From TrEMBL:
It holds the Pfam family Epimerase. Belongs to the NAD(P)-dependent epimerase/dehydratase family. Pathway: Carbohydrate metabolism; galactose metabolism. Its cofactor is NAD(+). Homodimer. This is UDP-glucose 4-epimerase. InterPro entries: Epimerase_deHydtase (IPR001509), NAD(P)-bd_dom_sf (IPR036291), UDP_G4E (IPR005886). It comes from the Eukaryota. It catalyses: UDP-alpha-D-glucose = UDP-alpha-D-galactose; UDP-N-acetyl-alpha-D-glucosamine = UDP-N-acetyl-alpha-D-galactosamine. It comes from Nesidiocoris tenuis. Residues 6-271 form the NAD-dependent epimerase/dehydratase domain. Its EC number is 5.1.3.2. Keywords: Carbohydrate metabolism, Galactose metabolism, Isomerase, NAD.
Length: 374
């Protein structure tokens, strides 16, 4: 059987690039698009994807394309034979979404609509959507199951995820050709164990682990903990942190499920099922990386929930998927990426780690950046 082709939106980003490694290693062909809104672009190419090619020894077909560019998207679908789509592309900063709601609704929702149209036109109906536990709002019970009520959300970014889930449900109800899985991510952290790819947003670092690593490496003086008075074991917020490679493997499990069965529309939590407080994360990070993270506790951050962690039984049972990386590995791998690449993907930042497994040939690899119409 010839290998299946997966179209990955937001492929140059943090989760997208890790997912592409897993896809290539599992034998899929990958066609990726990204508009570089929140990922590094060098000379029109994606350094993250060059590293993906280096890790896997396999090529990625890449287009710089915004999902709002309906004509280009359509052209790609007509040119490539796509079997599955994994849709990561979205803007995701909670604070920014409150300031620029129209930009968030346009980018996330209209972009998804154009994607669905291009898919339908090309006769591709198999979709894995990158959703978030944010759709649950403030949990009514824990651990949270997929049938927990959704929609009671306090920020615009979260509402875009929720509205898209609702839209996908409607689309699949209206036309039985569609086979769609929404994966609700908890808090992705860590990096590829090789240290060659990791998180390198072009927008400000606001998530906990990247910020902590900035402090550990000396780019920031101290960490600010938002709230020490929550009704949790130590007063700080609790989240379900999941290794990004485990998250990526969840997408392969979802593709498998789509290939083997008529799903129509289904949602799954992707987390570990275990909650860690901010102080526990700091403690684990310090131990795993032998660093010190000075911190100060301030007021709660507007819009933050107290605690959330997943019930992951459904994904285990139906997707046959389990996490395999520990909290220690999440911290170690993130730190390896950070110390090997203190300035992320920028060329000047490439460091060696003395392991003999350095990304020395990174700049020798070229994603097949596709120019349409040529
Ligand atoms: O500098 C920081 C950053 C975070 N935190 C705390 O660390 C925890 C995790 O915060 P993150 O910003 O890393 O992640 P969130 O849980 O706020 O947000 C994540 O989960 C959300 C769903 O709950 C959305 O999906 C969002 O996009 C995703 O980043 C929270 O208790 C937060 O208050 C700090 O104390 N200091």
């Amino acid at each position: 059987m010839s290998p299946k082709t997966v179209f990955v939106t937001g492929g140059a980003g943090y989760i997208g690039s890790h997912c592409i490694v897993e896809l290539l290693q599992a034998g899929y062909n990958v066609v990726a698009v990204d508009n570089f809104t929140n990922s590094v672009c060098e000379d029109g190419e994606a350094p993250s994807l060059k590293r993906v090619e280096m890790i896997t020894g396999k090529p990625v077909t890449f287009y710089q394309c915004d999902l709002l560019n309906k004509a280009k998207l359509r052209e790609i679908f007509l040119k490539q034979h796509i079997d599955f789509v994994i849709h990561f592309a979205a803007i995701k900063a909670v604070g920014e979404s409150m300031q620029f709601p129209v930009m968030y609704y346009e980018n996330n929702i209209i972009g998804t609509i154009y994607l669905l149209e291009a898919m339908k036109e090309a006769g591709c109906y198999q979709l894995v959507y990158s959703s978030s536990c944010t759709v649950y709002g403030n949990p009514q019970y824990l651990p949270i199951t997929e049938d927990h009520p959704t929609g009671n959300i306090t920020n615009v970014y979260g509402r875009t995820k929720y509205f898209i889930e609702e839209m996908l449900k409607d689309v699949s109800a209206a036309d039985k050709e569609w086979n769609i899985i929404s994966l609700r991510y908890f808090n992705p952290v860590g990096a590829h164990p090789s240290g060659h790819i990791g998180e390198d947003p072009t927008k400000a670092f606001t998530n906990l682990m990247p910020y902590m690593a900035q402090v550990a490496i000396g780019h920031k003086d101290s960490l600010t903990i938002f709230g020490g008075d929550y009704a949790t074991k130590d007063g700080t917020g609790i989240r379900d942190y999941i290794h990004v490679v485990d998250l990526a493997s969840g997408h392969l499990a979802a593709l498998q499920k789509l290939s083997n069965s008529v799903v129509r529309y289904k949602t799954y939590n992707l987390g570990t099922g275990q909650g860690y407080s901010v102080l526990e994360l700091i403690d684990n990070f310090e131990k795993a990386t032998k660093t010190k993270i000075p911190y100060k506790i301030v007021e709660r951050r507007l819009g933050d929930i107290e605690q959330i962690y997943a019930d992951v039984r459904l994904a285990k049972e139906e997707l046959k998927w389990e996490t395999k990386y520990s909290m220690k590995e999440m911290c170690e791998h993130f730190w390896k990426w950070k110390t090997m690449n203190p300035d992320g993907y920028r060329k000047s930042s490439i460091q060696t780690n003395g392991s003999g497994n350095e990304p020395a040939s990174v700049n020798g690899f070229h994603c097949q950046q596709q120019i349409l119409g040529s």
